[in-house]
Amino acid sequence: MDGRDHEGRPPGRMLRVGGVPLHVVREGAGPACVLSAGLGMGWFDWEPVVPLLSPHRTVVRFDRPGLGFSAPPVEPPTAAGEAARIAGVLDALGLREPAMVVGHSLAGFHAEAFARLYPDRTAGIVLVDGSVEEEPRPAPARELRTTAAHARGLVLSAAGLPRALGPSLRRLTVRASSVSRQDPAPAELVRRTYGTGRVLRALLMENARYRDVAAELHGLRDAHPMPPVPVTVLAASPGTGSGLERRWLARQRGLAARLDARFEAVAPAGHLLMYDRPQSIAAAVLATPPIRA
Q: What is the pTM of this model?
């Protein structure tokens, strides 16, 4: 997989969703399953999982605005906005039946928000080492933080930092987040994405609005109950037995209890479960019987 066809184009299509041209990849056949990656990550980070699912599911991957090959965002991210984006991607593909939504890390917030706001369109959710904030509060000076993140991205891009350091920083981050200590994504694909200021600016914006999205989801939990669909929480367990690992697993168990979800500690695995244990993610998806509209 080198992330492009013989003419150098990325696989999939560009679809306008919510006013933004999004890069969307659809593969396989069967009930729909949406894979949404964590903060600053792209469609290709799910590559090890897709062949395990595509014989049984219509697998949908997309790059959030600014990430991968998608166009820059028109507004800062929100939990409701990302839930609407998932629904919009499904609409653009003509997929009307309830879908399984798999959210990794930050995208766990988006998957849960989708289930709460679009219960009739949800077949189940799988949270893959999802972000956890027990009692989140919005960070102060939201608009100032948003403006600062945008300005910082422009300055760093103008200075050539993404081209010079973006791919290397991506490699280091992936290797530190995986027990295999490797980044299997093709070098050319990493260069074409993480070597751009567009991806850097999107990453900075997602990071700047993280606490706001967490607090927004906390409010959605009070106003919108979870639908009666299967929920699975997969937690990465490197197997070191450290206090940090024990605390993380305890927080993941707490999230599972809050959502009345099935909990599974996956070991040995780092935060990037899709690289370390793709079979565990596929098994969690395929264990849920499809729901027909």
A: 0.95
Query: For the residues of 85-127, what is the DSSP string, one character each?
Result: HHHHHHHHTT--S-EEEEEETTHHHHHHHHHHH-GGGEEEEEE
Q: Cα dihedral angle (275, 234, 221, 133), rounded to 10 degrees?
A: -70
pLDDT digits (tens, 9 = 90+) for 231-290: 999 999 999 999 999 999 999 999 999 999 999 999 999 999 999 999 999 999 999 877
Which H, E and C letters describe 16-56, residue by residue? EECCEEEEEEEEECCCEEEEECCCCCCHHHHCCCHHHHCCC
270, 248 in Cβ contact below 8 A?
no
Sign of CA dihedral 95, 96, 99, 101: positive
| Neighbour tally for 292: CB within 10 Å | 8
Q: How far apart are CA 57 and CA 32, in angstroms?
A: 6
Q: Token pair of 286, please?
A: 């395929």
Share of the chain above pLDDT 90, in %: 91
Neighbours of 196 (CB within 10 A): 17
